[in-house]
């Protein structure tokens, strides 16, 4: 026997490689298959609970002419033999069916990686042949479906509310469009009854990248479809059902190209974005401003501009959103069309800011006239009213006590504060009526207050002027928060972070983050009036608000130019132009160190509460913070009329809301003992100024009872009839 | 096969040992780096421009949580929750040199005062464990412009000290993080940067300082020296305070194994003798390394020694009565209870204003106590009121002849 020779190194390595590669490959494939099986069977999303019936709120009988389910809002021609009353139907929350359908299905131009509308119902689960996008799956994810039995012709594939389509301008592809209603239409269940509440917060986790959620599952399915020829063949048969035989093979090739391109775009998105949102948003929340910034400054411009967005906020309710002078949770944006465009860009309307100047750099798929139509439609939406038949009767006596407490405690901040269009801006009621203590607390330790002779004095010397970093010479005399060009609005006040004490992350991110947009700096200074004079050095270090003001302004006016309404034969007159472009409001966004209280009619239907959704019910909102739930569970929206909130007990696959995570703090807006301020806002003891105490249980109950029936009084008159004249359902070009 | 596994695991263990040794080395380097850089840097450079808000608000909110969590069921202080007792004292201001003659030290005088001794840690731990010990003086009946608004001010001047010359937190945002972690029951998360594996992110120097503030117990609360840690105004000067016993206190027969032995030793000393403590002042030399913002840097006593400006005369008495203990829990010590001549300075002190006012008001209201600042012993406890004539039983009239 020869001596055993040591194996030479190259052979050893070769052996290792030959063995380990197949093993690793097997492990990867098994892991991937396991993952796909897992998400194909929706292992980690809540089960559905059955519902027996569906109700709408605020029924107004015989308020609407029965329409022909026509999304344009044109009613069927009246039949002379048919008495009007027979054709009249009910409106709900102030909306007739055509308004509702307009809201549900009017697209806004968003485009998720070129995902096409027709693909959705044709997709199979990543593993198996079962259909992926079903009512069951989408409802388990928190999407809601139109309860109406009339089929909207613009919803041919039975998609959840807000999921609709538009034709892409360049390719004519029928793109899936996530419109306003997707996040601002909600449903709650209560003991087997499904309640449709238009304009209430949505409950899905659309942007989530967690397993089984919408986007991961759709793209896993698209990927398996592409790598599995049998799956692709079934998919293509469904998608290309109308294609004539002789074009079929060409169309299949085209489809393959489109799907691969969409998968690639989704992967690029995931590559850059997967680690940007460390605080899991969960159901019903998204870091709106953070995502807008990462999309516009990051995806659309430069990867250097990505910033951690760890401050998820609730989808706000929208039945009075159009009425305010300042919107967003921080009250940071004024111009309605600017806000709508920002939102639309954040929900991935196409924009490519890297394209050269003058060559469509500011062209976007966002559809401004359609968004204007949606906004106008919302002006006619009413807050939901409490249904005694469903949730039980109101104790009127208790509610009357609650009303007193409300006026003493809540109304001072929550308003509403209607502006009076007949008097000068500086004399608006909000300036006169609001004492310093309203926003800053009865801060007995505040030395400013001692120096000011009176509250009105204080208003004159208050440091309410903005100090833009990006603009030279801010006008020191401007009281920006008092300005509005709209006729009638509800003014909002800003409560500083240190008084309200709620999680500051959302405001701080907007205040502190800076972005580099120097590649957008125009060669020559444009002459147009709206062009902000951004300082030379600020282009590479611009704040969220100013940067979006610039980009958004360019995008809006470039689209108006493309529409031919700025000049030429189709030019709009000044009034129509102002109406379209945010009702003539100036775009003066600003990151206040503050949050904004809203009027409270219908607030019982918008749980969970606070801007970050960290308090599951109004009852807990009236408690000291240490008695609130530290963790609770979200996923299904089962209403709890006893607490005016959601049922948040633990159940299988629910999302665990952990209030100790960054951005999730449930502190602040407290009714607690001690000095008022630093998160304690009430109940302010009249005989001991500056001191607060807890509510008694009876007081809490009284307030809850009253909030069920609270009425904000007369709403501002938007002076608009619903008109969607600029917006036609998009035709194939 | 078995041999192979053995061989492999041996190599793996070796590798593991090497890696952990390297990592430990990194920890040591990180510690050295932090200690040296703290000695070299301009200590206040990064501290003067700190944003106070909303960090202070979050600190207050965390403090409320801490007070709620550690209620017993009584709501205690968020720090120094365990008092050994509040003793009666007279503050006797000495005839001082001109640079010390400001505020209450301007001229010789005698004030009534309360002195509270305490353990630093919340929740309370046994006295024999390592801990910071606190001494707080409330001087009453003080003249001068109070720092707090009228609704909250009295006529008091408080001095708050612990038995370490330095505090371990430098920045407001760090303090916020620490309070937040403490409120969630995980104070060590703060020092180890959320348990990061990277030791350079850890706050090792702060941990060393924090551990050094936790000292073995003194035999009696009089047997250690107390320091204000943060800086105050004294007229035009910036100063730190300190206090220690005038003479060594006999510690014979003290059983230092009892969980509450500091209260017992305080009692036994005051049963036998009057105690004198000095209140001393160290004036800041602006040219020396004596920072105002960075409370982790000690002011050198070589450059500027502590000089006695007043004496606390604690009479022999029994302070451990239910009434006096009740009063001891209800009063609030706050560096901002005081006059403008002794104004607390620096961001940490600024933060303490909001923090102490809010936690005191919170804890008192939760305990159902409504209290304003006392202006004399009698105002705090009726036991110490001079026997008024009306209350005295009428003297028996002399028999008529």
SSE inventory with pairings:
The complex is a heterodimer of chains A (733) and B (401).
Chain A: H1 9-40, E1 53-56, E2 60-65, H2 84-87, E3 88-91, H3 97-105, H4 119-122, H5 135-140, E4 163-167, E5 174-178, H6 180-183, E6 185-190, E7 193-198, H7 214-227, H8 229-239, H9 248-273, E8 285-286, H10 288-299, E9 313-314, H11 336-346, H12 368-378, H13 388-391, H14 396-414, E10 417-418, H15 429-433, H16 436-440, H17 447-451, H18 455-461, E11 490-491, E12 495-496, H19 497-500, H20 505-512, E13 514-515, E14 542-543, H21 544-563, H22 574-580, E15 594-595, H23 618-621, E16 631-634, E17 639-640, E18 645-646, E19 655-658, E20 670-671, E21 674-675, E22 680-682, E23 691-692, H24 697-709
Parallel strand pairs in A: 1-7, 20-22
Antiparallel strand pairs in A: 2-3, 4-5, 6-7, 8-9, 10-11, 12-15, 13-14, 16-19, 17-18, 21-23
Chain B: H1 2-40, H2 55-69, E1 82-93, E2 110-119, E3 133-140, E4 156-162, H3 172-183, H4 188-191, H5 204-213, E5 226-227, E6 232-234, E7 237-245, H6 261-272, E8 275-283, E9 307-314, H7 322-330, H8 347-366, H9 377-380
Antiparallel strand pairs in B: 1-2, 1-9, 2-3, 3-4, 5-7, 6-7, 7-8, 8-9
